[in-house]
Write a structure and sequence with these properties.
The chain has 135 residues and is an alpha/beta fold. The protein has 3 helices and 7 strands. The strands form 2 sheets. The chain has a 5-stranded mixed β-sheet, covered by helices on one side. Helix 3 links the parallel strand 5 and strand 6. Helix 2 crosses helix 3. The longest helix has 15 residues. It starts with 17 loop residues before the first helix and ends with a strand. The relative contact order is 0.18.
């Protein structure tokens, strides 16, 4: 009489190529991810002889271009909405700084209207952004 041997099948997951798969996934996500920086409107800033930089967390960027378009933190807004947006952000953080980026070809009436909206929102920390020009 012949005794049959039982063959045990081991169930395992092959992990030899696991590092290759993880590396390929990491590479895929690195290549396809988009890291967006704040751009605002395309403007040409005026020149300045001196200035200081502020921390990005404490800033609201208001952009105004020569075509009278207004953007707050990369979102196009109408001039009558500026007061409400800035006032609500100031309630969250009283130390907020409004960085006012204006194209040097923008009409002064638009700049004046935006400043009036900021004044009505009680925004006291307003800076005008410029390009530093060294001698």
């Amino acid at each position: 009489m012949k005794i049959a041997r039982r063959i045990r099948m081991k169930s395992t997951i092959p992990t030899a190529s696991m590092s290759d798969i993880i590396f390929n996934l990491l590479l895929f996500f690195m290549v396809t991810s988009i890291f967006k920086t704040e751009e605002g409107l395309q403007i040409q800033l005026p020149r300045a002889k001196s200035g200081t930089e502020a921390q990005q967390q404490q800033l609201i960027h208001i952009w105004a271009d020569r075509f009278s378009r207004i953007s707050i933190n990369d979102k196009l807004v109408r001039i009558e909405h500026i007061q409400g947006i800035v006032a609500s952000r100031l309630e969250e953080n009283r130390g907020l700084i409004i960085a006012f980026n204006v194209d040097n070809r923008t009409k002064y009436k638009l700049v004046s209207d935006i400043m009036e909206q900021l004044k009505e929102a009680n925004a006291i920390n307003v800076t005008f952004t410029s390009v530093y020009e060294s001698d």
